[in-house]
Design goal:
Length: 70
């Protein structure tokens, strides 16, 4: 992963993966991971070289910054 964000409750980690061009959500307690957005996977947009991630104040949306995000 290139960059990580922990939600305010400390229960979920969001990671941008520049190698796999994806956004991953990880459950801290179980370690289970889910690709939120990636090449032909997840529910979000296609990512190409994601570099950083920001969560909105309510932590209901993730904003990914990078090159060639579509």
């Amino acid at each position: 992963p290139k960059n990580l964000k922990l939600n305010s409750a400390g229960t979920k980690i969001y990671a941008v993966d520049a190698v796999n061009d994806s956004l991953v959500r990880i459950d801290v307690a179980s370690g289970a991971s889910l690709i939120v957005s990636g090449p032909s996977r997840g529910a979000g947009t296609n990512l190409n070289h994601p570099e950083d991630i920001y969560l909105n104040e309510e932590e209901t949306k993730a904003y990914v910054v990078g090159k060639d995000i579509s």
